[in-house]
Prior knowledge:
This protein is mainly alpha-helical. Helices cover 56% and strands 12% of the residues.
Amino acid sequence: VPQIEVTFDIDANGIVNVSAKDLGTGAEQKITITASTNLSKEDIDKAVKEAEQYAAEDKARKDEVDTRNTADQVIYQTEKTLNDLGDKLTDSDKAPVQAAVEKLKETIKGTDVQAIKTATDDVQKALQAIGEKIYQAAGAAQQGAPDAGAAGQNNDGVVDADYEVVDDNQ
């Protein structure tokens, strides 16, 4: 009974390479199958020209989508940060950020990409102002506390020692 090993290899372009090898005799046959295109040279050139023609529109649409995605990420991150810092902030601290977030939510419903970018920047600036307040408050609290490490002995397990290398072979 003949044993034949058949392999199929499909590449990224849709080209199929088929090989068959008779394991008994070692004889091998190969064939390549390619899809026939029904496009003429003119059709291909027309498609390329259309792609070039709409490249600017595609770029503008990509910019709009990227801007909207960034705005959505900023909204999510800002709301998460406000929830995480809820007890450390007063309502008067949160109010400008919440107002900026609401403005951004309304702005992304429209189609003005520049307005979305501006509103996103406003939210980031408002959030940055809160971050500065939090860090200033944390810095003031640390300055008020005594430095426990300086008052005590440095006991982190580090020992200074002198040593001498002894070579048993000499």
